[in-house]
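tl;dr need the bound structure. longer version: we got a ligand (0RA) that a collaborator sent over and nobodys looked at where it sits. i said id run it. heres the input, straight from their email, havent touched it
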Amino acid sequence: MSDDAKKQNYSADSIQALEGMEHVRMRPSMYIGDVGVRGLHHLVYEVVDNSIDEAMAGHCDRIEVIINEDNSITTVDNGRGIPVGLHKKEGVSALEVVMTKIGAGGKFDKDSYKVSGGLHGVGVSVVNALSIHLKATVFREGKVWEQEYERGKSMYPVKSVGDSDKNGTTVTFRPDTTIFTQTIEYSYDTLSSRMRELSYLNKGLTISITDKRNKDEKGEFISETFYSEIGLPEFIKYLDATREPLMKDVIAFEGEKNGVPVEVAMIYNTSYAENLHSYVNNINTHEGGTHLSGFRRGLTHTLKKFADGSGMLDKLKFDIAGDDFREGLTAIISVKVAEPQFEGQTKTKLGNREVSASVSQAVSEMLTDYLEEHPDDAKTIVQKVILAAQARHAAQKAREMVQRKTVMSIGGLPGKLSDCSEQDPAKCEVFLVEGDSAGGTAKQGRDRMFQAILPLRGKILNVEKAMSHRVFENEEIKNIFTALGVTIGTEEDSKALNLSKLRYHKVVIMCDADIDGSHIETLILTFFFRYMKELIENGHIYIATPPLYLVKKGAKKRYAWSDEERSEIMADFGDGSKIQRYKGLGEMNAEQLWDTTMNPNFRTLRQVVIDNGAEADRIFSMLMGDEVPPRREFIEKNAIYANIDA
Ligand code: 0RA
């Protein structure tokens, strides 16, 4: 190739690269899912994933994440460092290629087993494109190398800025506020629970997180360091800390099956909840997929075989279903797949067929060994399964009652429901209101065209502690099912939700702004989390935010949602302002409730999202379980919704 041709070729390629980066800025959601809170945090995961790749390749054992004062993020690793030499095809430093070329990924050699990679595995160049400023520092070959970028464009060629005997990569980026228009404020809790999760999924790796925006009582930055020596079994212990185990040890497997690295850990506890968490390349696959179905098949098959052989089922008068083997089970399935096919609404469902058999074999092997070596535990598990089957039969009956009602349309709607007149569910909202009296006020205050009211009496059942047939027998819960038009259970899966007749696309939980109210709110959320998780996942569940104060002076009046806001208003109004504190919804009249909490033009609804399924599971079991001390500690330390709200 002539020099001229080379130059042309180079510039053609770099134009392509530029277009790639421009495309990321034009269509960020295609690369990171969304440009809201989730997408913002995804930037951090994307960079950390590259460091995790280094760790999985055996070159890195420390990762640090720092939230800087200005909400920029710094990640530090002690891997090999991104190569800085000339990239022959591109004619610039490899570092520049990694940072500015979409799809360059990171590794150039095809042999390297790149299996991590965030939601879409898009690479650090995407983070660069979406940052107003990014600085990469590489410690490699005795030197320190540096390059900075603005909105993904390099500001100068890679340069050496000093000597060092360290290895590693440090990246600091500040998200572009013109892309992330909603917020660039990072949540420490969201990042820290992901880092904890990553440390369990990658044993032997130390991951620390520091928040330089906040100091603790000792004047030190908020910081945590995560390290797991044995990985998944420790993760299980962490998740089940407030549940009562049915056995001493976690049952675990680690190995390769048909070329697929598989790790599984599980334990049975005395609860009635099924907690399966599955991961592919460190990504939580909350829609499941082939690895999860492989797990289920292996579990059912092995336990059924054992139970049949034990004679314990001989006098049983009813069948045992797949579900029955998973009541009170907490399990984690983690696989590494070289070319994962992600499917489903949120692209978190594994499609690769071959993985199913790998996991199923791993589970059969692990369980068969365990049952042989622990006959007492084996018996305990079978007894638990029989109890679950019994309860399921009772629940089936209770559920049929609920469904019969649903079919009878209007006649079947709960008497306490004040329905709206609009028929299109997309336009309808239902308020679940604490108490009959607040329910009455809400009914007067609402816009009856599109707002329905369902008052709930006092504290609803704590589903965390109740067997499922009790849940389906409960009046308030039956009312929620019938009012929402949601049914549960099909031939194959007794817990499958049918949302096709959902009557309201917004379900708003409206409770008093006090301790009791937040407890009731948590009870209702626990119910949705355990029995209608898809409603949360599909973005249908919201929390209303009634004001705490009314500040008045003469004819002037304003509402305040925090102590801070109240003080501001008082300062604004000057001397002589009067304050009314709302202890509950009941203290507001219909007009005030509408103005502050129900009118779509002025209210703030908090959408409930699950940003970390495993952590949400742990928190619900802790908040609603039997052990009081950890609950108190948690409530004192955090706002109750720290980990679950938007
Ligand atoms: C390309 C090739 C190699 C490593 C990396 C990229 C790499 C990327 C990141 C991003 C954050 N930390 C990272 N660490 C490494 C292989 C390097 C070699 O062969 O020496």
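gonna send this back to them w/ a short note. The two ends are 55 Å apart (CA to CA).
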